[in-house]
Amino acid sequence: MTTETQAMLQIETAPEPRVVPFRRPPALARASRGRTERKSIILTIVMGVLAIYALLPLFWLVVNSTKTQHDLFSTFGLWFSGKFALWDNIVETLTYNDGIFIRWLGNTLFYVVIGAGGATLLATLAGYGLAKFDFPGRRAVFAVVLGAVAIPGTALAVPTFLMFSQLQLTNTPWSIILPSLISPFGLYLIWVYAVDAVPTEILEAARIDGAGEFRTFFTVSARLLAPGFVTVLLFTIVATWNNYFLPLIMLSDSSWYPLTVGLKSWSAQASTVGGDAIYNLVITGSLLTIIPIIAAFLFLQRYWQSGLAAGSVKQ
To answer: Is the dihedral of CA 231, 232, 233, 239 positive or negative?
Structure first.
């Protein structure tokens, strides 16, 4: 047997080297664990402070909705008084001034259904079209949408009022609905979400099968865009529900007020010398105003979380 053959046999029969796992030195492991624990404690404290900051006004609102007008100014604001007057305050809020609060609630729901619903539908159609169709000027449209997202709505309120006054649409529901139909942020969110949420291969397969663009959108793409659609719907609902400045300058007839402007008028009335002291109604009305928004978020929470997370990572 030659020397080369012996060397090859020794190499083949040699035991495989044992892989020794890397272990951190004890001192380094303790230091890393200590930094993680300190970081977790700091984050817990920060989150606790933010939670208190967010929930304290809500707790104050709930507590003071249970008080009478007299107890509002004679008891501690962050705790309940002797008499629990929540039901009496609700009844008085709904019946005060011939039930104008119910009229304001109906107006707000009308603005939300037409304005927010229409804005979500238009944003979905436009965002889907920009994401899945190539056409000249697409980059320019993208720049315009980004610019529109950066412009605050209050900056456009006065020009919008001047334009609607020329069209004689002020002090009408259309002065609130028409501006609410445009949601640049919703369009951008759907655009970004639809790029990967709707595979191009599925659209091509539907077209090969003879489906038109509208049928493809409503039977295939709409289902895939459902999480993003619900996310945009929630954003537009909140924006329309909390809309204050635009209705304030557009409407002069209190019968068309939304809840935001109506409650502000009650607050101004209570602050006026000789006016009715109805701060308990303002507080109770504010509590009733936020209940539908909370219910909408809880009902659509699953779609909202998945749609927001997906839209934040799509490129």
So the answer is: positive
Asked whether the beta carbons of 277 and 200 are under 8 A apart, the reply is no
* Strand positions, DSSP E, 134-196: none
Q: What are phi and psi of 77, to 5 degrees?
A: -70, -20
274-305 per-position pLDDT tens digit? 667 789 999 999 999 999 998 888 887 776 65
Q: What are the φ/ψ torsions at residue 149 (nearest 5 degrees)?
A: -65, -35
Q: What distances in angstroms separate CA 293 from CA 30, 153, 288, one per listed residue?
A: 47, 21, 10
CA-wise closest residue to 57 among 290, 270, 300, 235: 290
pTM here?
Answer: 0.81
Give the end-to-end CA distance of the chain in Å, rounded to a whole number: 66
**Taking the CA atoms of the chain, what radius of gyration do you get in angstroms?**
30
**What is the phi/psi pair of residue 143, to 5°?**
-65, -40
**pLDDT tens string 66-76:** 999 888 888 88
Question: Which DSSP string do the residues of 42-56 spell out, in sequence order?
Answer: HHHHHHHHHHHHHHH
CA-to-CA dists, residue 207 to 5, 198, 215, 218, 225, angstroms: 67, 14, 10, 13, 18
Q: Which amino acid is at 304?
A: W
What structural domains and CATH numbers belong to the chain? 85-313 (1.10.3720.10)
Whether the CB-CB separation of 89 and 65 falls below 8 Å is answered with: yes
Residue at token pair 């909140």:
238
Is residue 105 a contact partner of residue 263, using CB atoms and an 8 Å limit? no
> Do 245 and 227 contact (CB within 8 A), yes or no?
no
- Residues 6 or more apart whose CB falls under 8 angstroms from that of 172 comprise 256
Residue type at position 250: M
